[in-house]
Here is the input.
Amino acid sequence: MSDLNAHVVIIGAGHAGGTLAALLRQYGHTGPITLVGDEPIPPYQRPPLSKAWLKGEADADSLALKPLEFYGEENIDFRPNVKAVKLERAARKVKLSDGSELTYDHLVLATGARAIALPIPGADLAGVMFLRTAADAEALKNTVGPGKRLAVVGGGYIGLEVAASGRALGAEVVVLERETRLLARVATEVLSDFFRKMHESHGVAFELGASVVGFEGENGQVTGVKLADGRVIACDAAVVGVGAHPNDELASESGLETARGVVVDLEARTSDPHIFAIGDVSHRPMPIYGRMFRMESVPNALEQAKQAACAIVGRPAPTGEVPWQWSDQYDLKLQIAGYAFDVDEIVVRGDPSTGKFAVFHLKGDQVQSVEAINAPPEFMMGRQLIGNRKAVNKTKLADPSVSMKEVTA
Amino acid sequence: MAKITYIQFDGTENVVDVKPGLTVMEGAVKNNIRGIDADCGGACACATCHVFVDEAWTEKTGAKSAMEESMLDFAENVQDNSRLSCQIKVTEELDGLIVRLPESQH
Here is the structure.
């Protein structure tokens, strides 16, 4: 059923959309490809924005997925600074913010997610920032420096990466978290404690259980973060990292099925056979866990770009992958495989005080997820165990003197 | 600039000029050379930029860090000359470098 001359319109030029455009050409698609993005630059990697890039260790060139010339050479019509505003499914048309419209054979929604704003007074003051785009990162980089006071609202991975980069740039950093521990929604207490201690040893201050009720400012510029207990934490800039919301309005307004994102199948196809959704915006099946969910990670964007590309050109569907993600803070590498669904036991392998350990999340004797700190073998083998559903010997798993190869043998 | 030859598993050769300072992985990705996936973008987190360094160049490309060694330990078809190409910084001295790509990175 595939037509290599079909017009593929990709809405969203992030990691998912950019990768899909390149994969389609790699897989032999000869028809027109239009890549529509609302940012001024071609697709780039977002993960370094809070890490190497913020610290000045990577430049714009190294962020780009492909150089700008690539799109011309591969005959991909890349349209920056423009958004899709309306989808007319019956006519297979999408209207753009510049007044033009595109007719598609296949439409791919790769619109990503946006940072959630806090609905509190002062949130619109200058210096209250997010970190989602290269422009956000540039603004933050220009604000943070030696002697500057940076308040980070939200003790999740983005917040902690910004905190680490802020310290590397010489700023004073305080992290304000509503829960009583860091990474409360995504990690175990072992990891929360480890990260708090590590950041404290690098000079980051924490206010846990702190409810932020507003931002204070002077002349339109933020000067402090106000807490529910009445205290005001003085700052020159504040970064809000409290989660993201899928940009699924285009889909829902046109009647496509949505849940916590645009509902898709394992080909990344939505409830309309001519429309796909990939990356952060999609709500996808995850067969290993027998459920659907929305992920925000580069490996997921890549996997779904592959699924959609294969479906469009008529290749067999790619083998399913075990989801994973990573984070860099200071000289530490965190690698996470899987998601901790339906977990009934936790096995810690190694001693957190050594800065090298892994937390395994088990359901019965199967591994559901692993968080590995400076521990690639635990990550790599853990990822395999999640994928092959093999039963593990918990005593061996908990004993770092038994190699991971032996644990999985 | 350093000339780098990337040889695909099927024998296809791509010769490109790579700017010193970039990594061997970035040189491939920016020149649209297939076979180096580099899912993590160079964070030494995924082992999908695995290459075999031509024997004549193994010394010049330097030593592996413990992290790289550890990641490689779990990649497929690893040989003595295996490297993660995101961990090899291109310098003028690497002008002429030849790397071969494995069959698959996934």
Notes: Chain A has a mean pLDDT of 95.
